[in-house]
Structure prediction request, 134 residues.
Amino acid sequence: MNDEQLIAAARAAAAQSYSPYSNFPVGAALLFGDGSVVTGTNIENASYGLGLCAETVAVSKAMADGVRGGLVKVAVTGPGEEPITPCGRCRQVLNELASLGGTDPEILCVGPKETHRVSLSALLPYAFGPASLT
Ligand code: THU
Prediction:
């Protein structure tokens, strides 16, 4: 699974977006150390504040299947002109899964012209995570 394939997986997930209120389809693809990929897309709600982001849906899918770490890379795609970066809540949600396996995944923030590559720890410095509770 190369980066282009991971980005393609995120784009394919975005094609399933349920975002009739924002018309802003987002896709996320999580790559794990064993080569597996889990995708997610944003799912909005008539009660606007209850919408779920693509990254959160992807992490939820993975964890519901028992995944507890091994997150090495994440691709996020959106419809905008600029590379899309995970929202603050999603950074925290990604951090929980990454922390469980002690990884610092690279986040591919994909735009139509360029892709920004940044580590999760750079997006969420001084993160509060599982170790913070000990
Ligand atoms: N959205 C995501 O899915 N991920 C992000 O990191 C940023 C925002 C979604 C939420 C909402 O459905 C739409 O994009 C517009 O904010």
User: Anything to note?
Assistant: The chain has a mean pLDDT of 98.
